[in-house]
Design goal:
The protein is α/β, with parallel strands linked by helices and 343 residues long. It has 13 helices and 9 strands. Strands 3-4-5-2-6 form a 5-stranded parallel sheet, with helices on both faces. Helix 11 links the parallel strand 8 and strand 9. The two termini are 21 Å apart. Residues 65-80 and 184-194 have low confidence and may be disordered. Keywords: ATP-binding, Cell cycle, Cell division, Nucleotide-binding.
Length: 343
């Protein structure tokens, strides 16, 4: 859901987007880069058989039957399709989990289905209340949840109750995460106080492990591209002649994110075809870093390239943050930042 705007330079730090509940529900579809994702277009890495196994199981879950073995591709018979109401794709970033999740969405022959990030569902609850979210989603045949994360006790309770009510009414679930469902919340809050809720939620899912390496790093050195001031200015100006380009100081964007609900980050990017960030620096505040991670996810989903000056964007999260409970989030963001600066 993007809006075309006139060519020229805009400033993300000056945008104050609004998003109604109806717009939030309407936006629960796969992002543009996965608008046509299918099982056929999923490229399983032959070095990691779990990728082909996962594809086979998920085809059964989506109602398309198991994948047909081909000589030299599958060496084992496909596993039986999941029987629980939900499937949970557990694996590192860049192994194709979101592609497979979108393939389920596109290929499951059902009437009502939704696809959104974890934060989009919790934002819906925040906008219309818990019962309002249940009412909006009740009757859905399929709910897809990308990057399932439980960063605080409130989210734990909300998502457990929401998914429990939806499953009880017949909704099927598909989710991705970098963390197995019984381990959600570990290292972030006192997960032991919520084990009953976490385990109850996990009982709705059959976990499918997907191993592999980050496809975004298979052909790159893992470093984000940094431009000098003159090169940056020239590229921003050149693109702005025919398209909308954002140009902001990194500090200004980070500060502005604190005043915009994460559910609205996608609207900050409306119509923008290139993002410019000047004078990038390292994060000192974890809350600010996590807000930036959420913005990076939206930028990557929208496939908007980034140009930046200052510190390389793969170095904005200090070692102490990378060693903490949000390590996987930061590593995912670094992977996506590298890919976005190379685009």
């Amino acid at each position: 859901m993007t809006t075309a705007i006139a060519p020229g330079i805009v400033h993300l730090a000056e945008r104050v987007p609004e998003l109604t509940a109806a717009q939030m529900v309407a936006a629960l579809v796969p992002p543009p880069q996965f608008a046509h994702a299918s099982f056929e277009s999923y490229r399983a890495d032959p070095e990691y058989p779990s990728q082909a196994d996962a594809k086979s199981q998920l085809m059964g879950f989506a109602g398309g039957g198991p994948a047909v073995p081909k000589a030299g591709f599958f060496r084992r018979a496909p596993k039986i399709a999941p029987t629980k109401p939900g499937v949970y794709l557990d694996g590192g970033f860049g192994v194709g989990k979101t592609h497979l999740l979108a393939a389920i969405y596109h290929e499951m022959p059902v009437r009502r289905k939704y696809f959104g990030s974890f934060i989009e569902y919790t934002a819906l609850v925040g906008a219309v209340g818990f019962q309002g979210a249940v009412d909006q989603l009740r009757g859905a045949d399929l709910i897809c949840i990308d990057e399932f994360e439980l960063d605080d006790p409130g989210d734990t309770m909300v998502m457990t109750r929401l998914l429990g009510q939806l499953v009880a009414s017949g909704t099927r679930l598909a989710a991705t995460s970098n963390t197995p469902p019984n381990a959600l919340g570990e290292g972030r809050f006192a997960a032991q106080d919520f084990l009953r809720e976490i385990h109850a939620m996990a009982d709705s899912f059959q976990t499918i492990r997907i191993d592999g390496t980050d496809y975004r790093h298979r052909a790159v050195d893992g470093h984000a591209v940094t431009l000098d001031e003159s090169t940056y200015a020239a590229e921003i100006s050149a693109v702005a002649a025919s398209a909308a380009v954002s140009d902001d100081a990194f500090h200004d964007v980070v500060a502005h994110l604190a005043h915009v609900h994460p559910s609205r980050y996608i609207r900050l990017l409306d119509g923008v075809e290139l993002i410019g960030l000047r004078d990038v620096t390292v994060f000192a505040d974890q809350s600010a870093a996590l807000r930036f991670v959420a913005l990076v996810d939206r930028i990557y989903d929208a496939q908007i390239p980034i140009r930046a000056t200052g510190l390389s964007l793969d170095r904005v999260f200090p070692d102490e943050m990378l060693a903490g409970g949000y390590r996987k989030k930061y590593l995912r963001a670094i992977s996506r930042l590298v890919a976005s600066t190379l685009a």
